[in-house]
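Reading a protein record of the kind used here takes only a little practice. The integers have meaning only within a learned vocabulary of local backbone shapes. With that in mind, consider the following protein and its fold in token form:
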Amino acid sequence: MSQTLYLKYRPQKISELDLVSAREMLEKVLKGKSLPHAWLFSGPRGTGKTSAARILAKEVNGNDKDLNLEIEVGTCTDVIEIDAASNRGIDEIRELRDKIKLAPMRAKYKVYIVDEVHMLTTEAANALLKTLEEPPAHAIFVLCTTDPEKLPETVISRCTRVQFKRPTIAEIVAKLKIVAKGEQESIRVEELEMIAKAARGSFRDAIKILEQVILSDKPVKEVLGLLEFAEPRTLIELIKTNETKKALEFINNFVAEGVAPREFIERAVEELREQLLETMDKSLLPLIEGLERAYERTKTSAVPQLPLEIFVIENSKHETLNPKQEDPKPVKHGSGKGKFKLEDVQVRWADVLKTVRPHNHSVEALLRSTRPTDYDGDTLTLEVFYKFHKDKLETDKCRQIVGLAVGEVFGTDPARLILQLGQRLQPAKEEVVADSVDEDLVAAAAEIFKVEAV
């Protein structure tokens, strides 16, 4: 495969544009009596804006065969593509204004395609506006953006706007069928629909995923990570049936298999959205909103799956995860003092977490956001990266669970536990402290540890 499939199957004519609405709009405007000198193509990434801009350059220049070929390979001197993300200053726009006065070398019109135009500085955008207000007769501008709201209204008002809407699943599947047929690959419609959903509104991403499937020669589900052990519908059903412990185990299993919690949440929200639109069941709304909150928290959580685990417990109906478990009784300490050191507990920290898990799954999850900093066989010092986590681990119940686990691993009396608040593993945009934690998060934590939220 000498050329990537996205470039190989890139639309080259208006009739080949994948978005029906954009195709019809372009055809309508080009059939008009006057030709706009400024265009604005706006819409999500991967929907064909730049491809449409090149096609427009061909159309206004009469679809000359040799010129079209140069435009397709990017060697046409009269079609200039500018990346505003890296050429965003006023000096670059001034240079463009000076060069635009020069007549085209071969084409009828000189076409300037400005990609990500919203990235221009305010001064550069104002300079561009002056050019749009008084353009040379031989110049046409095509501004492409994923974020038109960031453009000055004065720039938008000077342009003929073509909206590239998010494509439907059917439109993406239709494109994938063309690519699969061209590559002589037999892929079931159900699998193409899986790819289309995973692409999240991007023709480009969909074709890239299809290319991975073809090159890897693996099932679509495996390439997408959509294996049975990570089906969002399974977790949703466990929550609905109040099988909280099984739901937490389900999360732990798919994380252990390498499935990213954020990607899983995205698919879970999409699954619930489809159920909501199909059934109009309002009881699904709290689940969707809860998953959206969990998705945001994964950006700053030291333990990637913890927000999802909290979501599960938030939606449990007061199920006792360990109904037969009694509060640990006070125990003696000291039998291992001086026999071990920090390196010992660092090496066997995974064993400690494994030992904690059967006693309390949530305590194990919180321990994953800590780091051992000292151990002498009797006293274990942990650095905790969030005050909220530290407060919960300092409860007597949690201290005893951790201490018993350490003692079991090292064959000593239960360890004494000292907790120290340290710096986060990954800097976050906002400091999360006990006073700023959402009330629902505090309530969820209170449910985990069976304590009263204050």
Notes: The longest strand covers residues 139-145. Strands lie at 38-42, 79-83, 110-115, 139-145, 160-163, 370-375, 379-384, 416-421. The radius of gyration is 29 Å.
